[in-house]
Amino acid sequence: MAIRNIVLFVLLLSVIVSIHEFGHLLAAKLFGVYCKEYSIGMGPKIFSYQGKETEYCLRALPLGGFVAMAGDTDNSLETSVDTTDLPPERTLTGIARWKRVIVMLAGIFMNMILAILIYSLIILGSGSYVVSTKPLISSVNVGSPAYAAGLKEGDIVTEIGFDNGISIHPDTYAELVSFTGAYDGNGPWHLEVLRDGEKLTFEIVPEHYAEEDRYIIGITFSNAATETVKVNLLNCWVYGFQYAFFILKMTWSSLLSLFQGKNLNSLSGPIGIYTTVSEVADLGLDYYIQLIAMISINVGIVNALPLPIFDGGRVLLLIIESIIRRPLSEKAVNLVMTASMAVLLLLFLFVTYNDIFKLIGG
After folding, report:
1. CA torsion through residues 69, 73, 76, 82, sign
2. Going by DSSP bridges, is the β-strand pair 189-195/198-204 parallel, antiparallel, or unpaired?
3. What is the model's pTM?
4. Cβ distance 138 to 221 under 8 Å?
5. Exposed (0-12), middle (13-18) or buried (19+): which is 165, by Cβ within 10 Å?
6. 238: nearest Cα among 124, 358, 75, 356
7. Which of 72, 176, 312, 326 has the fewest beta carbons closer than 10 A?
């Protein structure tokens, strides 16, 4: 079992990283940037294929990957490219800044595409999909927490959050139900509803419904709130995009709560991901593939953060250069890169400690 879990863990990371780097490769080639190598994994080469000008490699350590682009600021031994005989327009630094932005964001885009593809195919395989309408309350049970708080029939839930700082603005009934399903029993629910054009806020402590092991506040939605539709090869992509966007909203909401200093214990690193892979693997292939999609979205969001070590940070530097109309000095770039590396190292140490603590405690 341990060997199986290790293989599945490595496969998950390899798929996500290789797709991310493949996005950078495609965008770079689109704009004529010379790419010396596209590699899955790190360390010594175990297999390689020489294309027209790019070498495609599989390396021994299957954790990571890279694209060796001419003019890339990452000058490590494996990714550096000799640009002596290359014209400037074939280097990353020689193309227009807007093109470089696209190259940097292409990896994030591919992570999202991977998630949409997975969710779409899973929905297609199920043969049907539940389409949800807006979260409009059709009735409030007398004597329930919602009734005591003052919720009424016809209220539309526009925001819901927990004490840990995580909240969403549900566009549909299904999003509301999915979000409340993650409630851990601690603290009240914070609701904002729209009533006759006016926004009202409520704080409601849910009751535990033991029969189904879930928490409720005593509101119901009309049967018209959902509709089961047949799925085919044409419409599955729409529903896959909708579901991926919902996961994106949930993940972004969780990330914002972390920036507010809340829910820090939910952070996980490689150890936490490995533990999750081990648990999900026992549930079946569908769950494992969905985990790949979810983590792919997480990787995309993290890479969008404005730290120069990430793609989002490199885009931020390009925007700054566009504003000041000149390249940043090498000293300034090295300074912010060192600072972001320090932040990333501290974060890695924290999540590793957090993972170990939860592992021992659990």
Report:
1. positive
2. antiparallel
3. 0.79
4. yes
5. middle
6. 124
7. 326
Exposed / middle / buried, residue 358 (Cβ in 10 Å: 0-12, 13-18, 19+): middle
What's the pLDDT at 353? 63
pLDDT digit string, tens, across residues 144-178: 999 999 999 889 899 998 887 778 888 887 788 77
Distance CA 339, CA 97 (A): 24
CB 197 within 8 A of CB 191: no
Q: Can you give the length of the chain in residues?
A: 362
What string of DSSP letters covers 248-297? HHHHHHHHHHHHTT-SGGG---HHHHHHHHHHHHTT-HHHHHHHHHHHHH
* Domains of the chain with CATH codes: 96-124+234-362 (no CATH), 128-230 (2.30.42.10)
Structure tokens at 143: 């004597």
